[in-house]
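Repro case for the chain-ordering regression, as requested:
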Amino acid sequence: MKKKIFINWILPELLLLALFAVLFAALPKEKKMEYNKLTPEEKRVIIDKGTEMPFSGKYVDYHEDGTYTCKRCGAVLFKSKDKFDSNCGWPSFDDAIPGAIKKVPDPDGIRTEIECAKCGAHLGHVFYGEGLTPKDTRYCVNSISMNFMPVKDDPLDTGYFAGGCFWGVEYEYQQLKGVKSVRVGYMGGHTANPTYEEVCSGKTGHYETAEVVFNPEEVSYEDVAKYFFEIHDPTQADGQGPDIGEQYHSVLFFKNDEQKKIAEKLIDILKNKGFKVVTKVIKEGKFWEAEAYHQDYYEKTGKQPYCHVFTKRF
Ligand SMILES: [Zn+2]
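-- result from build under test --
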């Protein structure tokens, strides 16, 4: 009788317990976040949500090329290209690195506070509707909450991909983990400052291209490039989907030998699988950013991409 109870009741319980133990052991262990030590003045602003005196901060009148990071945890927050002179006395940006900023209602009931999304450090406030830049947004940030990283130390990497209508390529890359920003534009042609109409005429030699900025600690270039071959059809020679023309051709632009080798390796793998890949592998040229209305097209319009669908090929 006792034996029966053991088999019917205790044994299943034990097995379940063992299963939980195995599952728990397999869970990824969260790394303990190491924060930088703060001075009392840094603590007053970053932890106690204070504000530095206007026109007193290091980055108010600062125009170097690079990335602004969180003073406390080192996370990337803002790009210098999004900084503008607002004359308000604090560094101002009209855009942030996607996912970097957390917005919370300020206890004053009026303003919106901004924090580092990674560690919660107080950064400042965000304001809309002031009409200062086309993006109509001002992230007003305390200099003391940030560090600055010149371009040469930038931890982010970039890849350029042309795979048909750039709205779709941009949309798909915005879904990939580790991608920090995507811009659409033109590359590979022989004219300066091309417009959409000029590129569409087919006379500029440019391809509709997506600039993909990613964090190599979260996603490798190889995975970013692999994804490219799975969000468009690399075997279509005359364009992509219903979009026909040279500007819609499949091109992977590499910036160095390492990227080139990875691209060629991936194409070989696909060819061995029977895909007749026509993707060109070309040294990257100057990237001409497309007109504002092409950026984040699907996000702005709420439409869905018509010719880019993820299809597993590797
Ligand atoms: Zn932080």
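Ordering looks correct now. Residues 2-26 form the longest helix (25 residues).
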